Amino acid sequence: MIPAGPAAALDEAKVPAAPVTAQPAGQKPPVPPLKYSPEMQKAMKNLALLLERGAEIPPARLEALAPELARFNGKLEDALGPDLIADAARREKAIEAARRAAAAVSALQEFRSALQTYYGVNGGKYPADPAELASDPSQAIPELLLPDHSATAKVTIIDSRKYDDDFTRAVTDSGGWLYFSNQDSVNYGLLLIDCRHTAPDGTEFFKY
């Protein structure tokens, strides 16, 4: 038998080609990275600089840019299209809702802590009106700014036992605070966020 020559040996030693992975049905191929033109890169760089250092620019100079920026924005929105713009708006709304929810829960914790401090200092009694806490500037009633509500520090006071069987019936979705002040009520001293909207984590605000 004639021994295999160098070329044949190389052929035998070749590594098999990697199999081609089929694209799953219905799945779009990956979008290649977008290459911006030099003009677009410069525009984005300048806009980023404007956001960062705009306070240092004389107002009159910024006002002079307004008409050109309006035209630019119009063309840019046409290029982006309504779907992308709507998607960006949804994401911005979700981010803002999460920020407001986190701030509201933090305010609730601080408010309840102030009530507990009052309770301890005043012989086991809560204030008839949380406004009494405002005598100490560090314990003023915090303002709420909930998703789909305007900012408010209003406190709705329930001075009765009307909702002893189900305190959730007192929730009116005012976007402010709900406080139970009746000493004979099982809800005495209870502080809630008066809102039935759902936070990003799926919890209704009054349930925090």
Mind explaining what this structure looks like?
The chain is mainly alpha-helical. It has a domain at 98-207. The chain has helices spanning 6-13, 38-53, 59-121, and strands at residues 155-158, 177-180, 191-193. The chain has a three-stranded mixed sheet, covered by helices on one side. The longest helix has 63 residues, at 59-121.
Question: Which properties best describe this structure?
Answer:
single chain, 208 residues, mainly alpha, 3 helices, 42% helix, disordered N terminus
> What's the main sheet like?
3 strands, mixed
Share in β-strands: 5-15%
Query: Taking all residues together, what is the mean pLDDT?
Result: 86
Q: Please, how many helices?
A: 3
Helix content: 40-55%
Strand order of the largest sheet: 1-2-3
Tell me the radius of gyration: 31 Å
Number-wise, the strands total: 3
Low-confidence stretches: 1-15
**Net shape:** elongated
Class per helix and strand makeup: mainly alpha
Order of helices and strands: HHHEEE
Q: N- to C-terminal separation? A: 86 Å
Summarize the structure.
The chain has 208 residues and is mainly α.
Q: How is this fold's topology laid out?
A:
Blueprint: H1 6-13, H2 38-53, H3 59-121, E1 155-158, E2 177-180, E3 191-193
Parallel strand pairs: 1-2
Antiparallel strand pairs: 2-3
